[in-house]
Amino acid sequence: MEIDSYQIGMIGLGVMGRNLVLNMADHGFSVVGFDKNRGMVARLNDEGQGKQVCGVDDLDKFVSLLEEPRNIMMLVPAGAPVDSVIQSLLPYLDHGDLIIDGGNSHFKDTNRRVKAVAEKGILYLGVGISGGEKGARFGPSMMPGGSPEAYQRIEHILEAVAAKVGDEPCVTYLGSGSAGHYVKMIHNGIEYGIMQLIAETYDLMKRGFGLLDNEIQELFSTWNQAEMKAYLMEITAAIFEEVDELTGELLINMILDEAKQKGTGMWTSQDAMDLQVPVPTIDIAVAMRNLSAMKSERLQVNHQMGDPIARTTSDQSWMIERLRGALYTAIILTYIQGFSQLYVASRFYEYHLNLDQVARIWRGGCIIRSALLEKILSAFKKKPDLSNLLLDPDLGGQVLAGFDDLKTIVASAVEMNIPIPGLSVSLAYLQGFRSAWLPANLIQAQRDFFGAHTYERKDKSGSFHTQWKVLEE
Q1: Contacts of 360 (CB under 8 A, 6+ apart)
Q2: Does the active-site annotation cover 191?
Q3: Rounded to 5 degrees, what are φ and ψ at 127?
Q4: Could you give the CA distance from residue 104 to residue 265 in angstroms, rounded to a whole number?
Q5: CATH code linked to domain 8-177
Q6: For residues 171 and 160, what is the distance between their CA atoms, to the nearest angstrom?
Q7: How high is the pLDDT of residue 76?
């Protein structure tokens, strides 16, 4: 339905862009969409019949149909395509117009773009969007950062289309610059970690416990209740019910064991290392996707060394209960690592994040939504400046309660020769934080021995260097 002018424009009418346009239209907003692909434009016009929606493939017409000051959202692949769209738009834009990047852009790219367009008097928002195709259509979690003035201008639109928990929209202004895209990056890092943990749990069930696919499905379905209720648990249970149309077998057994990635988990790990924040569960999740992709080498090593899997000899029902506790504990620890990184990044990048609000908007619409986020929200409401959620009595107590389960499963997996690096490093992370002493004194001494890097003492302040005894050649 073409009208004289539209409240907001959308560039990129793929799955996410088209569905978000229709979501906006459902809530009474007029939206014009642009895409070079005429098929995408035609599909929007077809699905948007009867709504205040119009798709065009001419950029000049697209801009001319927008109300002034213009609000333009992009949902295009991260990287060079975003810069290309911005460059193509700039000749058409005036002072006070707004560009919104709804893609998974790297936060440093967002900072650069904010600065570049500001010199031309143009406002910019980086908005992380989570929820996939269904979320875009019916309510995603949205993580906006950038100009406060810009957010105020489109706040009513974002609040209308976002997922709701009760009557609370899963969107809020997070902070200046790249705050929104940074929070989305951490969301994706946590997502990587939890997916790896669930996959390892599946491996233990299948190869370690010898469970059938229908038994695995039933367990994931049962676990997706009470404190473990979460979207990723829900879809995992559903996956084990899907039948392959080509073979009649369960689809899960026809899918190649190689996991791809788009880079957001890797970005989380890279920046955590820059900030010197330990996020080992996220790190190993990235590494294991890389290892899974080395299928040819894995097959060669398997042929040379064998694959001596040994099923557990312990009581199966007892082990399943230990596994449930271990998985839940490791999932808590993954959220803890992500929020710890947000705490440090907020100060380092001057985002001034309210971590309770991050937890609040992640409760609905997004991929990592879970019942656990209610506890995390409560923890930050009680103590907004909490540096690590292990220090919260409730969450710390739950982690401690699952400590023995996690130890039992890690030890059993070693005996069964089943790789569970995510569960293992989650245990090591907890053990490291519980330890009042770590052997880093030896590392300090080694660094000073070979490189005169100095060390600190327990009994005096300052830096010290020792003339160590020279080793004989």
Answers
A1: 165, 168, 170, 172, 373, 377
A2: yes
A3: -120, 110
A4: 11
A5: 3.40.50.720
A6: 10
A7: 95
Q: How confident is the model at residue 3 (pLDDT cuts 50, 70, 90)?
A: confident
Out of 191, 227, 321, 383, pick the active-site residue. Answer: 191
Domains 8-177 and 439-473 share a fold: no
Per-residue pLDDT of 199-226, as tens digits, reads: 999 999 999 999 999 999 999 999 999 8
Q: Which residues contact 473 (CB under 8 A, 6 or more apart)?
A: none
Cite the DSSP H helix spans in 90-147: 107-118, 132-138
For the domain spanning 184-434, the CATH number is: 1.10.1040.10
Q: How far is CA 167 from the centre of its chain?
A: 24
Instruction: For residue 260, name the pLDDT band (cuts at 50, 70, 90).
Output: confident
CA 41 to chain centre: 30
Asked if 472 is an active-site residue, the reply is no
Q: What is the DSSP string of 300-343?
A: HHHHHH--------S-HHHHHHHHHHHHHHHHHHHHHHHHHHHH
| Cβ(124)–Cβ(114) below 8 Å | yes
Q: Please, are residues 409 and 323 in contact by the beta-carbon 8 Å criterion?
A: yes
For residue 198, the tally of other CB atoms under 10 A from its CB is 21
Residue of 2, 36, 119, 184 marked active site:
184
Instruction: Write down the domain spans for the chain.
Output: 8-177, 184-434, 439-473
**Given pLDDT bands bounded at 50, 70 and 90, which one contains residue 471?**
confident
Q: What is the DSSP string of 347-387?
A: HHTT----HHHHHHHTSSSSTT-BTHHHHHHHHHHH-TT-S
Amino acid found at 401: A
Helix (H, G, I), strand (E, B) or coil at 34: strand
Burial 293-323 (b: 16+ CB within 10 A, else e): eeeeeeeeeeeeeeeeeeebeeeeeebbebb
Global pTM value:
0.96
CA distance 277 to 460: 26
* CB proximity list for 156: less than 8 A, separation 6 or greater: none
Provide the CATH topology of domain 439-473: 1.20.5
Computed from CA positions of residues 24, 28, 31, 37, in that sequence, does the dihedral angle turn out positive or negative? positive
pLDDT confidence of residue 4: 86
Q: State the distance between the two ends of the chain, measured CA to CA, in whole angstroms.
A: 84
Average pLDDT value for the chain: 96
Give yes or no for a contact between 105 and 82, defined as CB atoms under 8 angstroms apart: yes
pLDDT digits (tens, 9 = 90+) for 292-308: 999 999 999 999 999 88
Helix %, strand %, coil % for the chain, to 5?
55, 10, 35
pLDDT of residue 262: 79
Contact partners, residue 323, CB within 8 Å, separation at least 6? 201, 204, 205, 405, 409
